[in-house]
Automatic annotation (TrEMBL):
<comment type="similarity">
    <text>Belongs to the NADH dehydrogenase family.</text>
</comment>
<keyword id="KW-0560">Oxidoreductase</keyword>
<dbReference type="Pfam" id="PF07992">
    <property type="entry name" value="Pyr_redox_2"/>
</dbReference>
<feature type="domain" description="FAD/NAD(P)-binding">
    <location>
        <begin position="6"/>
        <end position="333"/>
    </location>
</feature>
<dbReference type="InterPro" id="IPR051169">
    <property type="entry name" value="NADH-Q_oxidoreductase"/>
</dbReference>
<dbReference type="InterPro" id="IPR036188">
    <property type="entry name" value="FAD/NAD-bd_sf"/>
</dbReference>
<protein>
    <submittedName>
        <fullName>NAD(P)/FAD-dependent oxidoreductase</fullName>
    </submittedName>
</protein>
<dbReference type="InterPro" id="IPR023753">
    <property type="entry name" value="FAD/NAD-binding_dom"/>
</dbReference>
<keyword id="KW-0285">Flavoprotein</keyword>
<keyword id="KW-0274">FAD</keyword>
């Protein structure tokens, strides 16, 4: 191995940024390797919170991590851009041109050398080829999507307010993202209510959210008791939940279901399915599955190239498939951070990554939450709900902040967020 190895990390999500931060401390600081993080955005957000950004109940500025700042403080480099292809023969990645919003070229296409590359580009919703979804539906796969939805949501609320009409929103997908978004939208409207009443002299418009789930129950990764309780809670706050509702097509006014019925919606969100970004098809001929995920060995190296690793939602372990969750991504990032230095410096093979399931948590805004903890079976360890589960969900995010910032700076970010609750609106208004 070279005395100063070139390590590229593609994707600054939960796994990518965590790995860059850890390797920066262990190898970047000592000069043993140059670690470079590549992402098409300039900042990181915790993906499990995207539904909060979409509804406007979380302030982006407080909860974004700037890549340049993080790199400066943790001994790695950051380059904005998207990896368009990988030249495995010459060990180079090709970055797409970096463009302004109007299409003006800021940076031309670039090539970067690597000795080791780790791909952590996450996932997107999977429309399964359903007609009309790409043209007429929004998603919340990243911060740009979430902000775009929030802008539309606020403008349509204003339109409904002025016209004394209702706002219909349909969300396809009864997993954690869809369920939490449905609850968070109602929370946002409840917060906005007093502002509208005092500023305009009347209550906000009525919000009608329909959640469409193709399967027999929402939250299929949780026990049936949690699914039933969550559906009851959603219906209590005014969400219409339709299970066994397969979408046949989407148009500018709503969704046509397989049974021939039609669901009207001014705003349409697709939050169903998981697939890797389409760009994985251009990654040097690496073997991918039907959903674009890169096939990897148990130690997270590509089955085609030992110098290329993939982790998180964009990877797939054939012998031991894992769910596309932040918990899996974080554990895989820690595993590579622990073992990549020995492989790069001494050629010691990276061992297989063993996933330790710590359960799952879902929070429905301020209304309720559930934590399913493992025991004798995967989800059979026990279930808690209410305030304790909602706080546990919040603490997962705080733990992520401490992992990135360090203990003291992480605690200061908690304090800063708490202080701001007294001086800023608790929902985005502009």
């Amino acid at each position: 191995m070279a005395s100063r190895s070139e390590i590229l990390i593609v994707g600054g999500g939960v796994a990518g940024l965590s790995l860059a931060t850890r390797l920066g401390k262990s190898m970047g600081k000592s000069g043993k390797a140059r670690i470079t993080l590549i992402d098409k955005s300039f900042s990181h957000v915790w993906k499990p919170m995207l539904h909060c950004f979409a509804s406007g109940t979380v302030s982006n500025e407080n909860d974004k991590v700037n890549f340049i700042s993080q790199a400066s403080g943790h001994h790695f480099e950051f380059w904005p851009g998207e990896v368009a292809s990988i030249d495995r023969e010459n060990r180079e990645v090709v970055l797409s041109p970096l463009l302004e919003a109007d299409g003006t070229v800021i940076l031309e296409s670039r090539r970067m050398k690597y000795d080791t590359i780790v791909i952590a580009i996450g996932s997107t919703a999977n429309d399964f080829g359903t007609p009309g979804v790409k043209e007429h539906c929004m998603s919340i796969d990243n911060l740009v999507d979430a902000n775009a939805f929030n802008e539309k949501f606020r403008m349509e609320l204003l339109r409904a307010f002025a016209n004394n009409s209702e706002l219909d929103i349909a969300i396809v997908g009864g997993g954690a993202t869809g369920v939490q978004l449905a609850a968070e939208l109602h929370k946002a409207l409840e917060i906005v209510g007093p502002y509208n009443l005092h500023a305009f002299g009347k209550a906000p418009p009525k919000l009608h959210v329909t959640l469409l789930q193709s399967g027999a129950r929402i939250l299929p990764a949780f026990p049936e008791s949690v699914s039933a309780a969550a559906q009851q809670e959603l219906e209590h706050i005014g969400v219409t939940v339709r299970t066994n509702a397969r979408v046949a097509a989407a148009d500018e006014h709503g969704f046509t279901l397989k049974d021939g019925s039609y669901v009207s919606a001014k705003l349409r969100v697709w939050a169903a399915g998981v697939r890797a970004p389409e760009v994985t098809t251009a990654y040097g001929g690496l073997t991918i599955n039907r959903t674009g995920q890169i096939l990897v060995n148990p130690n997270l190296s590509s089955i085609d190239d030992e110098r290329i690793f993939a982790m998180g939602d964009c990877s797939f372990i054939q012998d031991d498939p894992l769910p596309a969750t932040a918990q899996v991504a974080r554990q895989q990032a820690r595993h590579l951070a622990r073992h990549l230095p020995a492989w790069i410096e001494h050629g010691q093979k990276v061992p297989g990554c063993i996933f330790h399931n710590k359960g799952a948590i879902v929070a429905l805004g301020k209304y309720n939450g559930w934590a399913a903890l493992p025991g004798g079976t995967v989800w059979g360890g026990g279930i808690s709900h209410g305030f304790s589960a909602r706080m546990a969900h919040l603490m997962l995010y705080r733990q992520h902040q401490i992992e990135l910032f360090g203990y003291y700076r992480g605690l200061m970010s908690f304090y800063s967020d708490w202080v701001e609750t007294f001086v800023r609106p608790s929902v985005r208004l502009d």
